[in-house]
Automatic annotation (TrEMBL):
Localization of this protein: Spore core
Keywords annotated in UniProt: Sporulation
Lineage, highest ranks first: Bacteria, Bacillati, Bacillota, Bacilli, Bacillales
Name this polypeptide is given: H-type small acid-soluble spore protein
Main location, first listed in the record: other
Family statement drawn from the similarity comment of this UniProt entry: Belongs to the SspH family.
Pfam families registered for this protein in UniProt: SspH
Amino acid sequence: MESQRARQIVSSPDEIEVSYNGVSVWIDKIHDDDRTATVHLRQAMEERSEVAISELKEH
């Protein structure tokens, strides 16, 4: 995924399905470097990870 699209998803009022390594995630924040984002699993809202935006997939 490109950083521009990730930013659109974060600001969208619609629920857009995104996955990281085949697992559904929510994007919490796009970092200033435009290469990484903080995400959390849809099931476990407390565990957050910093991942490469290029590794995110929109469904």
